[in-house]
Design goal:
Two copies of one chain form a homodimer.
Chain A (H helix, E strand, L loop, with lengths): L14 H24 L7 H13 L2 E2 H8 L3 H13 L3 E5 L7 E5 L1 H25 L2 H19 L3
Chain A binds a DNA duplex (23 and 23 nucleotides) through helix 1 and helix 4.
DNA sequence: TATTGTTATACTCTATAACTATA
DNA sequence: TATAGTTATAGAGTATAACAATA
């Protein structure tokens, strides 16, 4: 690759980055399906598990705040937290001053469910990282995750 | 209970790997939604675009082979290639010796569509990688993608 | 019997649109 | 007007189950 090719229709990105983009696309799809498969038979779906995990890490939050954090529409998040509430895994409390808002928090049952989720759903990833990669490779993956997260969260 | 692991109930994985697993889960979901959003209004859906891309890179293939490669069920892949065929983006030819099989290949229209797909769908990733990361960081991401792909493809 | 592929059905995830209640 | 949330509807993506045709 010495000269630029001004007439190339798909140009703009150098081929190794285009290849990386294609790999990332494939990887994302496969991870999504593995995560979904791993979370089956657990009583909670993938997106429900994501909410449980987030509530545990960042504390109680409103539906809208959860939607922003996971980058889904508030209506989508509403369906997810609604299902969790029906199963008694989260509970809603009124906001102290703003009566429009409802604050969702984990119940004890939700916390127990989360323990199970972590073991089975995120567990295989953590295990694979630990068993299949040496320390340098683990460090590479960990740094790359932060870099990619930065890209994914950039602007819209 | 388990006396081999006296401490944490969710143990087994060191905390930094558990954290990496959680980050990977969040990243995967966000990338999936971004990819889907980027492929809207293109005439092909995300999984259809994946098939076009694969046919271009690896040549003609049967439904079952495509399903294995993308790690979906043959029935699911059947629906995807069926839609592509209806739009004239792929065509099916009989297998020379096995009349059960049908070999799918890109049409000229499919190839043109793919060019468009690459520009818009994988384009934003390639562009972000090029613009937001320096060369060392790009190398880290590229290596990590290969490592993660290895993990994702390991055993079932 | 095993493999390729199809048809039928259902669930998850997410979206847009239209609405109510509160600020 | 703006924000938090709900309800209704739809499409993408995938799965399982049952089946037909071919090897």
């Amino acid at each position: 690759m010495i000269h630029e090719q001004p007439q190339s229709p798909a140009a703009a990105a150098p081929p190794e980055l285009a290849e990386a983009a294609a790999k990332l696309r494939v990887l994302t799809g496969q991870l999504m399906r593995r995560l979904r498969a791993a979370s089956e038979g657990e009583g909670v779906t993938l997106s429900q598990a994501a909410v449980l995990s987030r509530l545990d890490r960042h504390g109680p939050a409103t539906t809208v705040a959860l939607a922003r954090a996971e980058r889904v529409r508030p209506q989508s998040m509403g369906a997810t937290v609604g299902a969790l509430e029906e199963e008694g895994l989260v509970q809603r409390s009124p906001h102290p001053t703003d009566r429009r808002q409802a604050i969702m928090s984990l119940t004890d049952k939700g916390r127990r469910q989360l323990t199970e989720v972590r073991r089975t759903r995120e567990g295989w990833i953590a295990q694979a990282l630990g068993e299949r990669l040496d320390e340098r490779e683990q460090a590479v993956v960990i740094e790359a995750l932060d870099l990619l997260a930065r890209l994914a969260e950039d602007e819209a």
